[in-house]
Write a structure and sequence with these properties.
With 844 residues, this protein is α+β, with helices and mostly antiparallel strands. Helices cover 36% and strands 16% of the residues. The two termini are 35 Å apart.
């Protein structure tokens, strides 16, 4: 139930009271054959929703009622960036590629049996979304169009796509014209349109109000020289061009256009439906001529977010059960990589850039996964390799993994970070169909192989009735493993064989040995690099300057250096919130870590240490859509917290073209409070110019802090530069190294990493540790041992924080912004922490 619909708190309470009374009366009458419970509940909801209905009447003149847009307009707590899915998914396929209507019926039965994995709102007839993706039923479409006087080309020579349009004829005509213009731009022909027969009577009030007019467009291949795979890429561009033209020239509130997919191999039927409504709503699915050799189904549970027709699954290549916890970071990194992308396979550079942005901001995490999978696959990678790059298994700490496979994963970690979170992914490009699990195996996937060459895979057992004597084999997907049916080879390909083939397709191990860079822990740091830039030499003065207190020394830094673990307390934290405190507080204190909720389990970082890692490549990336030895030319760090020697080595690399530029993160005391904003603007401009001039490592340093220079809070400096470079599509061309005096707690280091820092040298924390060691009477630890102990405690603490959010790797966590600001103004958020939630506003 979406509470923002109610006009007041009284309405919300009244809705629960009425619903409870209705349920009680229905239960009392159930054994006497009383009135239909569903009708009574519907009337109760209608009584409570009169103001909403009035709005819907007004909306009908301009377009469908968009609950998401309305929530945003009302300044509610809803944020479109939180759109996530947790659902039921499965597929039925014939290994020998024999189409049948029975297979489609089996898939629909599977979908109905997973109804409990979907969801609905207070309107029981409006589901969160459900759908089915099937192989193109050529004979069915051929006969349907022939009845309209349209001759359909032979199978594989045309593409078909289901399109959501406005119910207003004039607006619908304009949207269709945009699609036809995109087809013409690509040099092909629109064969015709077909209205998809639907049964609107099965819809509830919410889904019925926003129901689109659904048609299918058929695009003919005018160029005989184009192969089917090449034509698939053309269809991809046509769809993206149509959407881009629609977004640029119209408002989605008045002109509706959404192409569910456009392909020669598969077609999708989906909507804001419940699992049991799909077969009844789409009349095509009941036609005996409607046959397919594969059927991928999905039932959506939109976690704390809004359902819509467009967000229903399956998407173009993917159906996803789970949640991507690192979504914001993944999307930002993809936006940055667009500045380096080139793909002759897709088209000219101008054509590729016309498809930007690759990641659609108005879809869910699953939709954005699908955006990336489409791009990687159509750019020339096998769909299996693309899935291995996006959802890699836990390879860093696995001693049983083959050297070839480990080299494959290590090499591809140089290209992109994992999309981390619990996930069962079912995928298809029409040539194969398969499924894979995340590295933790936090979503179930069970499969049956029958003697008549059928495969049934679903989120649970019991989705179809299969007699035991008909079962050839059965099993479940293991964490990080893949299950695949290759329709061209007409057989099942085992996980080991798939990944061995991918891992040995190129000499990844050799490329890594020749190009990857590792840091030495030893260095002779010149004296002038240590303290000469700091006008204040007295340690206590500098500690006070960076906000250190006696409590910091005795209860935080001290125990971390001596015990190698964070200090434990049993009395909780009774300190005032930073935004309400009467004492000065660090910027770090205005942020709170988020944690796993609803269907998203946390991880135990100790017992499940095999899947956790802080290792991460840093430095300039190369074209994501290509592969070469140079892609491995990045710096591999075992952890983000570097000693002063390691930091010096990082910023003074001897390798060719590895230039570093230092950015002074201080501002003049005489500039006053206004100096902070101007210094952040200066840092962003300097960073952009440095990257354009060839700098590969940006060093943000506040070493010049003194009586006349005030430090810029390190998290603000790092966050602002990271966000600025993302917007300029330059972030993937450099590493950000932070040399700061204010960071000393686990929370501080998580914030720096979460807002984009690649490497951190907390020099004041190290000097504090050295000071505490020198004060020891027994001299139980050397300074080096104490610093290593401090770093160990930070590492353990960071893994614990990742695990609370269900994230396994630093590479995924970096830039993911898994925080909420409390008391930070919108201006600061936009400049330094773009996309971070700050619901109450605050200081600017």
């Amino acid at each position: 139930m979406h509470s923002f619909i109610s006009r007041s708190g009284n309405n919300v309470r009244r809705s629960f009271v009425v619903a409870r009374r209705v349920a009680n009366r229905a239960a009392a009458r159930s054994h006497n054959g009383g009135r239909n419970e569903r009708e009574e509940i519907r009337r109760a909801i209608a009584t409570l929703s009169r103001p909403l209905r009035e709005d819907s009447k007004a909306a009908s003149a301009t377009g469908p009622l968009d609950l998401q847009s309305r929530a945003v307009e009302m300044n509610s707590l809803y944020d479109p960036a939180n759109e996530k899915d947790a659902c039921g998914v499965g597929f039925v396929a014939n290994i020998k590629c024999k189409p049948s209507h029975l297979l489609v019926r089996d898939a629909l039965e599977m979908l109905e049996r997973m109804e409990h994995r979907g969801a609905c709102g207070c309107d029981p007839d409006s589901g969160d979304g459900a759908g089915i993706l099937v192989g193109v039923p050529h004979e069915f479409f051929k006969n349907q169009l022939k009845a309209k006087g349209i001759d359909l080309p032979e199978k594989g020579k045309y593409g078909v796509g289901t399109v959501f349009l406005s119910k207003n004829p004039e607006k619908r005509a304009k949207a269709k014209a945009m699609v036809e213009a995109a087809v013409k731009q690509a040099g092909h022909t629109t064969v015709g349109w077909r209205t998809v027969p639907t049964n609107s009577r099965v819809l509830g009030e919410t889904s019925g109000t926003s129901e689109p007019y659904i048609e299918q467009v058929f695009v003919g291949n005018n160029k005989p020289s184009l192969s089917q795979d090449e034509f698939e890429r053309v269809l991809y561009k046509i769809r993206r061009w149509a959407h881009r033209t629609h977004g640029a020239k119209t408002s989605s509130k008045t002109h509706r256009l959404y192409v569910c997919g456009l392909s020669t191999r598969v077609v999708t039927y989906k909507g804001q439906l419940s699992s049991t409504q799909v077969a009844r709503y789409f009349r095509d699915l009941s036609e005996p001529e409607f046959e397919s050799h594969l059927a991928l189904v999905h039932s959506r549970f939109s976690t704390n977010t809004f359902p819509s027709w467009e967000r229903a699954q399956p998407f173009r290549m993917l159906a996803h059960n789970g949640e991507i916890n690192t979504r914001r970071g993944n999307v930002n990194w993809m936006r940055a990589r667009q500045g380096l992308m080139k793909s002759p396979t897709i088209g000219t550079q101008e054509e590729l850039e016309s498809l930007y942005p690759i990641m659609n901001e108005d879809t869910s995490d699953s939709g954005q996964l699908d955006n990336l999978l489409e791009l990687l696959t159509l750019a020339g990678r096998p769909i299996t390799e693309s899935m291995m790059m996006m959802i890699p298994e836990a390879w860093q700490n696995d001693v049983s993994i083959t050297p070839e496979k480990k080299a494959f994963y290590e090499y591809n970690s140089c290209l992109m970070e994992p999309w981390d979170g619990p996930a069962l992914m079912a995928f298809t490009d029409g040539k194969c169909i398969g499924a894979t699990l995340d590295r933790n195996g936090l979503r179930p996937g069970r499969f049956y192989i029958t003697k008549d060459d059928r495969v049934v895979l679903g989120s649970e057992v019991g989705v179809l009735d299969i007699h035991p004597k008909d079962v050839l084999a059965k099993g479940r997907l293991q964490p990080g493993k893949m299950f695949l049916i290759d329709f061209e080879k007409q057989k099942i390909i085992e996980d080991e064989k798939i990944k061995h083939e991918m891992a040995t397709s190129h000499p990844y191990g050799e490329w890594l040995r020749e190009n990857k860079i590792t840091l030495s822990g030893k260095a002779s740091i010149p004296a002038q690099s240590r303290h000469s830039r700091a006008p204040i030499y007295d340690l206590m003065q500098r500690l006070r300057c960076f906000g250190y207190t006696r409590e910091t020394l005795e209860m935080l830094v001290g125990p971390m250096a001596i015990e190698g673990a964070e200090a434990l307390g049993s009395m909780g934290n009774d300190a005032a919130l930073a935004c309400l405190s009467s004492s000065p507080r660090l910027v770090f204190d205005y942020f709170h870590q988020l944690f796993a909720q609803v269907t998203n389990p946390p991880i135990d970082p100790i017992r499940e240490s095999i899947v956790m890692t802080l290792a991460c490549p840093v430095g300039p990336e190369r074209n994501l859509l290509d592969r070469s030895p140079d892609h491995a030319n990045r710096i591999f760090l075992d952890q983000p917290l570097l000693t002063q020697e390691e930091f010096f080595n990082l910023t003074h690399l001897k390798q060719k073209d590895w230039k570093s530029t230092e950015l002074d993160a201080t501002f003049a005391k005489a500039a006053g409070p206004q100096g902070l904003e101007s210094s952040i603007d200066r840092l962003c401009d300097q960073a952009e110019n440095a990257v354009r001039d060839g700098a590969r490592i940006l060093v943000i340093s506040d070493r010049r802090t003194g009586t006349e220079h005030i430090p810029v809070p390190s998290v603000m400096a790092a966050g602002a530069i990271h966000q600025h470079l993302v917007k300029k599509m330059l972030r993937s061309q450099c590493a950000i190294a932070v040399e700061c005096g204010d960071a000393r707690e686990v929370h501080h280091f998580c914030l720096l990493a979460g807002f984009g820092a690649d490497a951190i040298c907390p020099y004041m924390a190290y000097e504090t540790v050295a000071h505490l060691v020198q004060k020891q009477t027994k001299k139980a630890l050397t300074v080096e041992q104490a610093i290593n102990s401090f770093r160990k405690s930070v590492n353990m603490g960071m893994l614990k924080v990742f695990a609370k959010m269900g994230i396994s790797t630093l590479q995924s966590y970096k830039g993911a912004q898994i925080f909420e600001a409390l008391g930070v103004g919108r201006q600061v958020i936009e400049k330094c922490f773009t996309g971070c939630a700050s619901r109450i506003g605050g200081v600017g």
